[in-house]
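Data availability (excerpt). The following record was deposited with the supplementary files.
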Amino acid sequence: MERLPRGRHGLPREFVAQNQRERLLAALAECLEEKGYERTTVASIGKRAGVSKSDFYKQFESKDACFVAAYDDAVERIRATVQEACAERKDWGGGVLDALDALLRMFEAEPAQAQLVLVEGLRAGRGVYDRYQVALQGFVPFLRDGAPAPTGGERPPEATDEAVVGGIASLLARRVLAGETKKMRELLADIAEFALTPYLGTAEARRIIAG
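Predicted structure:
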């Protein structure tokens, strides 16, 4: 987010407050990527965002509250990205592939957001961990809805959907921890095969991935 002009600018108070809020959320994610949760402070967030400490506390009562807001905002942005990608394809397998590609592109472009959601969300305490679990469950319908049964077989049990979503999140988190966020799209073929195979079988999954 760009900082607003200094001094008198005539912008509505509500606009200024929203701009500051968005800058603080972005700044927190960037601080987390550099320092981790424990070493990130209200002062470091405000300094990076260009927002005074007093204005920080007008938006959030604490660093924890800012973190939760940033986490929820990041999850919603990811959800919107995945939903939009799914909606553009009529076939289920192609939609899953497009959604995974959009997700990996987003994480490559915004590594701080990837760190926030996939790594720091597991370190910031029970309340945020619960949010992480809820977020994972929220992505299960994108995989389950419209998923076919493999040729000649029954549709996998619902637990498979949760296992696939959780497995993808775990794999991506390991890549973030390894400092490989900028190479996320290299994982597309492997992750897509992992996601599609339980529903379509290996041969059909690979055909869709190959295009």
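Summary of structural features: The chain has a mean pLDDT of 88.
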